Amino acid sequence: MELEKLKQLLGITGTDQDALLQFCIDSVTETITDYCHVDTIPGGAMNTAYRMAMDLYRHENIGDTGLSPGVVASQSMGDVSISYREDSTYTQSLLKNYRAQLSRYRKLSW
């Protein structure tokens, strides 16, 4: 995967987000290669890999320190109290959303 292509797809200019985008690329590469039991992303799965990286960057708001650690579970007005719960549904479903596209490249592992 190429950093510059991912930046173009996301409409990002400059180099401020490069480290975060590289983290997305590395995470998606690791996910795909682990799932498919291969050393590199198969050529036919490259567009799927870019879509996964874009989803990862957009949904998890990587690098945004102002976001809450999860979904608001409860809040109070007097003396201000906010409780969060972890939203694990997305992180668990990232591969699931692309499983059909990636299964064709999966190799048998012992």
User: Which stretches of 5+ consecutive residues score pLDDT under 50?
Assistant: none
- The radius of gyration is 17 Å
- In terms of DSSP E residues, the strand content is 5-15%
Mean pLDDT across residues? 81
Going across the biggest sheet, name each strand in turn: 1-2
What structural class results from the helix and strand content? Answer: mainly alpha
How far apart, in Å, are the first and last alpha carbons? 28 Å
What general outline do the C-alpha atoms trace? extended
- How many DSSP E strands? 2
**Oligomeric state of the chains?**
single chain
Work out the helix count. 4
The H-and-E topology, N to C, reads as HHHEEH
Number of domains: 1
The largest sheet is: 2 strands, antiparallel
Structural commentary:
This protein is mainly α and 110 residues long. It has one domain. Helix content is 53%, strand content 10%. It has helices at residues 3-10, 18-36, 46-60, 88-103; strands at 71-76, 81-85. Strands 1-2 form a two-stranded antiparallel ribbon. Helix 2 (18-36) crosses helix 3 (46-60). The radius of gyration is 17 Å and the shape is extended. The two termini are 28 Å apart. This is Phage head-tail connector protein. Pfam families: Phage_connect_1. It comes from Acetobacterium wieringae.
List its traits.
single chain, 110 residues, mainly alpha, two-stranded antiparallel sheet, 4 helices
Question: How would you summarize this macromolecular structure in one to three sentences?
Answer:
InterPro entries: Phage_gp6-like_head-tail, Viral_HT_Connector_Assembly. The protein is mainly α and 110 residues long.
